Amino acid sequence: MNTAPNPTRYTGTAIALHWLLALVIVGSFAVGTYMVDLPFSATRLKLYNWHKWAGVLILALSAARLLWRLTHRPPAHLPMPTWQRRAAHGAHLALYALFFAVPLMGWTYSSAAGFPIMLFGVLPLPDFVPVDRELAEALKPWHGGLAQGLAAVVLLHVAGALKHQLIDRDGLLRRMQPGRA
């Protein structure tokens, strides 16, 4: 771990990874929610492919973000009650776990359903499991449920950030704000 003095803001790389991952997750969730109720069509197939590509991007960004976080010291904690610090830590652990669990479950479901992932339509990614329709039906609700869990934790994370901004006025949001401090 980097042993340099604790900065007051996250690094530019951490900030970029945070906001890019947030954008891709929100977009993927919106597309995923919309596409599941569409009738079979070229549009539905296109959206499913985009959703899968977003899942692969989420995995890559999550791995990069986790690696960056493990090798770069974050800013010092702001003063806050112990319960809030523990809640924030738990929410961050849940976010990181779900950053990986949701797309991996989607990939596994796609493999079991017999719909391989062709990244950007040209690069075939390996299947995690052989085609098994029964397994696919068992996995499908897990992907959706984990995605809804991720959405709930994201909303909790945003609510906490807004509380710090609007009620505590402690400058917490400036630590992750793009641009110069």
Assign an overall shape. Answer: elongated
As a percent range, the share of helical residues equals 55-70%
Structurally, the number of domains stands at 1
Q: Average pLDDT, to the nearest integer?
A: 93
**Cα distance spanning the termini:** 24 Å
Number of strands: 2
What's the tally of helices?
A: 4
Spatial arrangement of strands, main beta sheet: 1-2
Which percent range describes the beta-strand content?
A: under 5%
Structure description:
The protein is mainly α. It has one domain (12-75, 82-176): Fumarate Reductase Cytochrome B subunit (Up-down Bundle), CATH 1.20.950. Helix content is 67%, strand content 2%. It has four helices and two strands. The protein has helices spanning 12-35, 42-71, 82-113, 133-168, and strands spanning 118-119, 123-124. The chain has a two-stranded antiparallel ribbon. A hairpin with a 3-residue loop joins strand 1 and strand 2. Helix 1 runs antiparallel to helix 2 (42-71) and helix 3 runs antiparallel to helix 4. The radius of gyration is 19 Å and the shape is elongated. The two termini are 24 Å apart.
